[in-house]
Amino acid sequence: MKIALLGYGKMGRIIEQFALDRGHEIVLKIDENNVDQKNSENLRLADVAIDFSTPHSVISNIESCFEAGLPLVVGTTGWYDRIPEMKNKCEESNNSLLYASNFSVGVNVFFFVNEVLAKIMNRYPQYDVLVEEIHHTQKLDSPSGTAITIAEGVLDGLDRKKEWVNELVGNGEEVVTKPDQLLIESHRIEDVPGTHTVVYSSEVDDIEFKHKAHGRAGFALGAVLAAEWLQGKKGFYSVKDMFDFNI
Ligand SMILES: NC(=O)C1=CN([C@@H]2O[C@H](COP(=O)(O)OP(=O)(O)OC[C@H]3O[C@@H](n4cnc5c(N)ncnc54)[C@H](O)[C@@H]3O)[C@@H](O)[C@H]2O)C=CC1
Ligand SMILES: O=C(O)C1=N[C@H](C(=O)O)C[C@H](O)C1
């Protein structure tokens, strides 16, 4: 495949390596210094675009790919309030987009088991629950996209929680949660690629369910596999459509 990389930072560079290893070609690289080259003529040189840019630029990148008729894989987080609108635009214009808050196999297994665990915990009201995420200090969005997906999984399964709220620890604002609110606690620590934990706590014990990324390789390989999976498909997909964990 011929790939256009939208965003050529920490993730874009690792994705390039995995794509080349798998026999693909990079035909366009866009970052904040050459956004003027992101036009339909250049985008149409590619078979697929992979966006790991910024919450601020991702919507414009999606719209440029739709205009060019270019299938798009989106790993960028921090835009999920616009999903319904982008889904409509994608379907109306007969385009294809696949997005994921996290492309790693391990996290997607985690998402599945997290939903099962939340349903089990309906039977045990003595446990409260919180989601904790830790990322590097350059991260622009909080909570992480992965933590939002995890929180949505808990809210889907656990009847006593109705909405999530976020506290960015250390920014001076402590959040007081109501019993039906699920706290997502965000921590920013130098060089941490991504750690997510769901903690159920009772008076007598804690249950901790944790995923810890050792680096960015799992995210990057997953994004290239998603671009391969998207070839020949039309419509708006999430990474859930790629995996089948049903047992
Ligand atoms: N879904 C997943 O599996 C993962 C998602 N991410 C997400 O990917 C995004 C990027 O992460 P990193 O690579 O760590 O960030 P980074 O800050 O290292 O790279 C961002 C890149 O976007 C570029 N950029 C800025 N404005 C742009 C524009 N208008 N058009 C195109 N590119 C533009 C910057 O120049 C830079 O090259 C973040 O939203 C992060 O949360 C990160 C890791 C895994
Ligand atoms: O910004 C990052 O680095 C990451 N972002 C994604 C997120 O917001 O969940 C995925 C991963 O945790 C790394």
From TrEMBL:
Residues 1-103 form the Dihydrodipicolinate reductase N-terminal domain. It is an enzyme of class 1 (oxidoreductase). Pfam families: DapB_C (PF05173), DapB_N (PF01113). Its EC number is 1.17.1.8. (S)-2,3,4,5-tetrahydrodipicolinate binds at residues 136, 145-146. GO terms for molecular function: 4-hydroxy-tetrahydrodipicolinate reductase. It comes from the Bacteria. Residues 106-242 form the Dihydrodipicolinate reductase C-terminal domain. It catalyses: (S)-2,3,4,5-tetrahydrodipicolinate + NADP(+) + H2O = (2S,4S)-4-hydroxy-2,3,4,5-tetrahydrodipicolinate + NADPH + H(+); (S)-2,3,4,5-tetrahydrodipicolinate + NAD(+) + H2O = (2S,4S)-4-hydroxy-2,3,4,5-tetrahydrodipicolinate + NADH + H(+). NAD(+) binds at residues 31, 75-77, 100-103. Pathway: Amino-acid biosynthesis; L-lysine biosynthesis via DAP pathway; (S)-tetrahydrodipicolinate from L-aspartate: step 4/4. The active site is at 135 (proton donor/acceptor), 139 (proton donor). Keywords: Amino-acid biosynthesis, Cytoplasm, Diaminopimelate biosynthesis, Lysine biosynthesis, NAD, NADP, Oxidoreductase. Catalyzes the conversion of 4-hydroxy-tetrahydrodipicolinate (HTPA) to tetrahydrodipicolinate. Homotetramer. Belongs to the DapB family. This is 4-hydroxy-tetrahydrodipicolinate reductase. The gene is dapB.
